[in-house]
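ping. complex inputs:
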Amino acid sequence: DQQVKQNSPSLSVQEGRISILNCDYTNSMFDYFLWYKKYPAEGPTFLISISSIKDKNEDGRFTVFLNKSAKHLSLHIVPSQPGDSAVYFCAASPDKLIFGTGTRLQVFP
Amino acid sequence: DVKVTQSSRYLVKRTGEKVFLECVQDMDHENMFWYRQDPGLGLRLIYFSYDVKMKEKGDIPEGYSVSREKKERFSLILESASTNQTSMYLCASGARGLGQETQYFGPGTRLLVL
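pong. complex structure:
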């Protein structure tokens, strides 16, 4: 039973446009959420996080939105750049991190 | 900057061999983790440790063991490698304070078991 779900395995976006990556979770006890970015043959890199007491956190081009009532998390990248092409994992935590299956983002010129 | 290093980037082993994967972190983190990443399955937790000489099973511990003799080092052991253990193995570390914890990952070891 997957507690953290990324239902879109891939997403393709034109350079300069907005990328929106989505994540759903099932456990209302989760209180901390993170996004990681992973390039091929490298380890995941921490991108941005949000606590359940907030509904938005912004860091440069990256913004994470949390909708607790819908148990939904999203990552917005504006503007998207070719270097953003990677696999993005969301993760949730009451203690250990539980990861989604990832969404492969491709940003094309 | 947090640095997590893994002993090998690529490994090729034969079925039945004993395999050691080493991980070292330089941030004095209490918590360390081993994951494997497989296509379509995301990152799955194998084992973790919240302190020296302490270990806890994750979601998929079968066929694996771990060792944490020093705070900075966490080793993953495949006692008898099998082909279904071919995967990308990722080590991570994080500071104490469960919940609100950010984990930092090493570069990964891609293991092929023939």
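The mean pLDDT of chain B is 92.
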